[in-house]
Description:
The complex is a heterodimer.
Chain A: E1 12-13, E2 16-17, E3 29-33, E4 41-47, E5 50-61, E6 74-81, H1 96-109, E7 121-131, H2 136-150, E8 160-167, E9 170-173, H3 177-182, E10 185-191, E11 197-206, H4 208-239
Parallel strand pairs in A: 6-7
Antiparallel strand pairs in A: 1-2, 3-4, 4-5, 5-7, 8-9, 8-10, 10-11
Helix pairs in contact in A: 1-2, 2-4
Chain B: H1 2-18, E1 34-38, E2 46-52, E3 55-66, E4 77-83, H2 99-114, E5 124-126, E6 130-142, H3 147-160, E7 163-164, E8 175-176, E9 184-191, E10 194-197, H4 201-206, E11 209-215, E12 221-227, H5 234-256
Parallel strand pairs in B: 4-6
Antiparallel strand pairs in B: 1-2, 2-3, 3-6, 5-6, 7-8, 9-10, 9-11, 11-12
Amino acid sequence: xxxxxxxxxxxxxxxxxxxxxxxxxxxxxxxxxxxxxxxxxxxxxxxxxxxxxxxxxxxxxxxxxxxxxxxxxxxxxxxxxxxxxxxxxxxxxxxxxxxxxxxxxxxxxxxxxxxxxxxxxxxxxxxxxxxxxxxxxxxxxxxxxxxxxxxxxxxxxxxxxxxxxxxxxxxxxxxxxxxxxxxxxxxxxxxxxxxxxxxxxxxxxxxxxxxxxxxxxxxxxxxxxxxxxxxxxxxxxxxxxxxxxxxxxxx
Amino acid sequence: xxxxxxxxxxxxxxxxxxxxxxxxxxxxxxxxxxxxxxxxxxxxxxxxxxxxxxxxxxxxxxxxxxxxxxxxxxxxxxxxxxxxxxxxxxxxxxxxxxxxxxxxxxxxxxxxxxxxxxxxxxxxxxxxxxxxxxxxxxxxxxxxxxxxxxxxxxxxxxxxxxxxxxxxxxxxxxxxxxxxxxxxxxxxxxxxxxxxxxxxxxxxxxxxxxxxxxxxxxxxxxxxxxxxxxxxxxxxxxxxxxxxxxxxxxxxxxxxxx
Lengths: 251, 258
């Protein structure tokens, strides 16, 4: 095993990052809506080297029953990494990290879901990370938000998520794996198009001023992602012009 | 049951809040009384009992030699755990940690790790073979709100009085664990654009949103976490950061640097 630390890496060359991006540039984003047949809503997203798929089931009956709430739907969110999604095989099943990410991701989406429309029911969101390259939680939230819309769940707005980081004393948008592993800070956020923040985490080291600049940069990234999410939904639903357009097979 | 009570208390707290008051008479950025007792557990390498108002958290540090992680062969290992034992609150249940307990442990860990409070290189015994493992175990005894700040304060207080038990393992004489930073977690809830620091248990029940800021001696931020199902405006985030860093400094000077 080769051991590296941040001194071994030159993060910038001629002002550009390892993958040729500017400091404030996102990795390429690709979003596809409605990729799973069984789910009520689904979405596949690629953000740089991340490949993540999200499915929404519900509103449906709550099991176990004691979890149900009389005045609203509950939301469950399961973030799961495939064992082959990372360099060194990840042991299958939830670990402490995925429990925390599931919690904060659910809390990133719940503020915009109109749960009071569906008392005593559950909205299940399942996120599978198929390939990981830093930023899987933000990719998962972006996909999940689109899948919720695809499932027809009433929402106050879309949620878009993006991270900013600090490498070689520079604030950068959407850190990739090397920048995340050997960088100085990581700050993922999620927000509504109005700029209401629904997820905020940070680790590393930032001065209060750097923190502010990182938040602003991540918010700018999230706004750009919002446009891509919106376009993906428009692309799918503008094709279904008339009711009954979908083919019906009678056996 | 707890929900019914909090609905009634919610009105009460809300009405007070409109008058700019809190149920226990504190100002919005005022912490409850803090007390820290160190070395309360003789069997532990380091320990601290933190009282934050009526909240009580006991943190114990145990150390033992073990194998390093393959990607950091020259560094010691920190493992943080939190037990939300059922004696501490009617809402805690026995069994493996749930997501609240896991989040708490991971945030305490984030403060210690990201501030580089413990010099992990100094905990290497034989490079690639043997290093010190530091177990930080958080035991919540009484949850009267804001147990995260109490647990985080407990962890750094316990580490400050931790002695590396080298003699017990035939590795020379015991020595004091070197500590290089003093991370402090400060949490605020947001309710109707009012930011309340160090929320009590009823205040936590009414608020949808909490933001925790962990800051270092230098006044930098080494960890942040929003929790709860609400939203925050960026301006609210910046306001919380400003007050949080100031509060953290006060707490650090009064309780850790004295």
